[in-house]
Amino acid sequence: MLELAFIWGIIKLTRLSRCRLANRLVRAIESVNRKSCKTTYAMCGCLNASDKQHREAMMIRLQSGLFIILLLGLAGSPARAEEIWSLDGFKAPESVLFDAKRNVFYVSNIAGDPAGRDGVGYLSKVSPDGKLQAAEWVTGFNAPKGLVMQGDTLFVTDIDRLMAVDVESGQITGTWPAEGAQFLNDPAVDEAGRVFASDMLANRIYVLDNQALSVWLESEDLLHPNGLRVEDGRLLVAGWGRDIQPDFSSKTPGHLIAIDLNTKAISDIGSGEPVGNLDGLESDGAGNWLVTDWVAGALFRIHPDGKVEQLMDLNQGSADLEFLEDKKLAIIPMMMDGKLVAIRLD
């Protein structure tokens, strides 16, 4: 009964709430101590004591529910996520990146067909507090997607080519065609300065090394790779899943995988259980990763053992996010909604 008294002090339910709890919680415990039941019943004080059988049945249900509450309490409180600001006016925003040196966000806008070579894509600039600084800061792209910085150079994936932008001048300074590429998505840079780029549809990862862009790895086990991140000698990959369907979902949802940068060996993060159609991938600064699910619309935290926490429900199209560790702020492009949302995580 000490556990029950402890729970009672924590939840501080009103008398009416306790009665509803007694009537609604799961019938999970079939054998209970009757004396404990009667004591618990007295604490509730909401049933007619003249009906012994009814009283005892309700006590079993009440104690079952309180036991469940205890288990939930021991599991800890869920992480909280709160929207801080949002900014509309984008055209299919796919990726956002923060430039700490210049205190600005860069945003890629597909604008047209995600696989269309139509020349309508562009990059925008946004202030840290969510104000638009330049709508069409850099133009001349087809369908720009992932972004990564190396020094003063911003690398941008654009369907079947990797492009470089000088952020000081806002000029495109380099273009590397990716032979055989179908849908370049997210780039990442390693300590040696190599730029990796995922090809989601071709199940490939390209690498720009010594000014030459070539296929670095091709495998079905890449799970139609989307978000990339270099960490501790590994290339982490947010997998979209196996067997992409006409509606862009996958027959089997994806999960996080890791690729050894030296051996190219592929391994699962955790058990390899399906998580979702994963898009953006960032560290949360505490040894875990934040990922978005584009199709379902969700923000997840994934732990090194593969444990998954859903932090927030979002609309479909939650794409390649940025995370500001010092502010605990996740910035997420909502591709289908044409906006950015800033979410504070506790």
From TrEMBL:
Q: Which domain of life is it from?
A: Bacteria
User: Which Gene3D superfamilies does the annotation name?
Assistant: TolB, C-terminal domain (2.120.10.30)
Q: Which InterPro entries match?
A: 6-blade_b-propeller_TolB-like (IPR011042)
Q: What is this protein called?
A: SMP-30/Gluconolactonase/LRE-like region domain-containing protein
Organism equals Mesorhizobium temperatum
